[in-house]
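Q: Could you write out the predicted structure for this multi-component system? I'm mainly interested in how the pieces pack against one another.
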Amino acid sequence: MESAKHHSLMVCDHCDAVYRKPRFRRGRLARCTRCGAVLERMQRLDVGGMLALTFAGLIVFAIANAYPLVRIDVRGAEDANTLWGTIVTSWHAGAFGVAVLTLFTLFVFPLAELLAALYVLWPLALGRRTPGFGTGMRVLRLAREWSMPEVFMLGVIVAVVKLGSLAKIAPGAGLWAFAALTVLLTLVTSFDHGCLWDLATERRS
Amino acid sequence: MIAVRAHELDLVACTACGLLCRDVHDGARHVCPRCGAALHVRKPDSLRRTWAFLLASLILYVPANVLPVMHTGALFAGTEAHTILGGIIELWHDGSWDLAVIVFVASVVVPILKMLALAVLALGVHRGWTTRLRERAKLYRMVETVGHWSMLDVYVIALLVALVHFRGIAEVTPGPGIAAFGAVVVLTMFASASFDPRLLFDAGSRHG
Amino acid sequence: MDETPRDPLADLPAPAERRVPRFAPSLIWLVPLVAAITGAVLLIGNWRAAGPRITISFQSAEGVEAGKTQVRYKEVVIGRVTAVALSADNSRVEVQVDLDARAHGFAVADARYWVVRPRIGLGGVSGLGTLFSGAYIGADAGTSGVQRKEFSGLETPPAVLHGNQGRSFALHSEDLGSLDIGSPVYFRRVRVGRITGYKLDEDGRGVGLQLFVDAPYDRYVTASTHFWNASGIDLALTAGGMKLNTESLATVIAGGVAFQQVDGEDASASEAPENASFQLFRDRGDALKPADGPSIVVRMHFNETLRGLTVGSPVDFRGIVIGNVTGIDLDYEPKTQTFPANVTATVYPKRLGGINLHFPGAEGSRDDPGAVFQALVEHGFRAQARLGSLLTQQLYISLALVPNARPVRFDATARPLELPTATGGLEEIQQQVSDILAKLDKVPFDEIGVNLRDTLHTTNALMRRLDDELAPEAKQMLAAAQRALEAANRTLASDSPVEQGVAGTLDELRRAAQSLRGLADYLQRHPEALLRGKPREAPPPAGER
């Protein structure tokens, strides 16, 4: 069902226009002329770089979850919550939907994205292609749509401001880690999948 | 300019891995040979799904704004109910105009815009509009990019509930509104994910 | 127009290219490196800050929450509760606490833990802050070197914490009075400490108290300090009258103890060591009076009624209280068929003061009390029950000199010492009154009355006679006396010849004296004149013109 020629073609996701794959130099992106969507962005990074970012992301993810995000002090009563603690408390308080959404969008999917990236990139960096590459890539695609750490950062700011009059708020180690996680996750999300596929296809043979 | 469309060339691109395959019109379901993902020329039932999700989110948008999203109880003040709009007004009155604007945009403007935009896009496909294709494609891209920011209020409520948890002094409990609002955000995201933007260009190319 | 179908693919446009800035990729590995370092630093910090994990058991976990409740020492957080669970036998609650690394002083054998909640006690209301901040577990560090991981939590905060400067002392008292844990200890009406504990003696004869005096006041507790119970209001109705005393309002409510150094011959200024033991006196007067020295028990045998004599009544010697009654007992004497009373008293011979010095003991020791009493008894002192106050009708025992006391055999070595008694006091008065009455009875008033009447009669007659006979004679006598006086007056008047004669005589005497004096002067200057006589007057010296 394929022909060699077709490997040199690419299709715009949004408007179905067909293009010849250009020979990119590093650091260039291609836009669809018809609809303006980004076709391909040549990674600044090579696989090794991507892997490095993934590692960093996983470590930071661990830190962000292990340490409290925010410390609150209301007239001497102190409390601090990690991300997991927030989810659990919301659940116990009756906000089931909120707890589930927070769990998936801030914990499950970011972790899945990082793990899938690791799973996919590591063999690739070693010059191999893992058998579950396809699944891994699909997980990556799904996860990146539903990971929202940057929205959470803004949410923390809003919540802190809302609580400012009532209590003393201090950021915890987890919050800084989460900010770093946001950056790293954005970078991981930006890995160009077509590029990876190409690499994988090369490796397979 | 006119570009050749894969559809015309009987090519199918795998949405997962980007591989171009030749379209086999045998009515069976096909998978991508490279990655195993299901191959579809267009997203299945795109319009129908989009409309369904859109409608659901529209219905739920009412209770999301009418019902309180949280109850706050302070030491001697009893419990108070807050809605999304109420929270925004509070932020404004408290002097945090910037945050009030941000929350307003994220929790009110964005969902409404999303719903409107998707409705317009879907309508455009139905009606076969051909003008301003590029703009509408941009609109779609914007909906996709911005859509998840509506989650802001969900996170704020989650944080407030989890942090202000001091029995007797101050306590925040979630209200039914926030569940509805979360559902609205999710549904609109599903709606935009179901919509296939290539349909826009299909309508456009049919006529031109 | 038909065109050769061109390979549509040949016409494919190339997508637009755009430049995106690049950066060196090898630096990208810094990112995970930094992340890893940060994570490691945090982990190590955590691990180093983690201290021992201990379990404290309480009766109830009210206010204690896993993950939230803190453990505080001097308001500094030193640990946190990580789990709360029931003990195996469901009798206590076991609270698991993770202490900070620097809190190793709290996982030792004598560390103590309690829950701080709002509490009302003798010290006032405490722990109100916990209404807002939630209960926390208070901790007291220990100094022991023995490690310990399981503790039994106290139900109330301890009165004294380690590290509190000051000293503990032990008191012994007959009863607790109105004291309690937390009762204040005063020194010169300044609150300097508190009672920290009490315990009934093993033999049930007294109460041992533990108290704590804060620094720097603990240096005022010396070996010669006396403590007394300053609780409440001291109202005493004694033979001396009524006495009212109170230390402060706090002591009225909470009871209290006060102390002061007692000056005496054996007063020392050295500070009392930790846990030194003291006697708790009943009241201030009791505490501050000079030391009693040894006491001896005496017994007295009274035949009269002793209504008004109570346990505690004083034993008095010439106005000085030398002891007090400790027991009154009735007895039956079959021989005389009377009910005498046996009174037991404790007497402090030292209070007799200087008397002791004069009566050395049989062995020559001055402190033998028996010897003193021997001497007193021989002198005629007896024990008497006397009325102390007409107001209260209280009796007291007085060791008084009884005139014409019957000599009594006295054994100075017997213990208890048997003091001879004599009736006295009220009995004595009664006896005297009845004697007087008896005497009065014997007086023959009738005869006296008759005699008196006769005497008056006679006197009357005598008076009349005087009037009639004696009066004119007396008048004459008076006139003669007057005349004599007049003559004397004349004789002695200033211009009477006698007077003149006298004056002349005096004049002559004066002149004579003068010449004598001149002679004496001359003789003094010319003593040879006695032999040669006075020389003729020499002619005046030449040259006088």
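A: Regarding packing and overall arrangement: The two ends of chain B are 11 Å apart (CA to CA).
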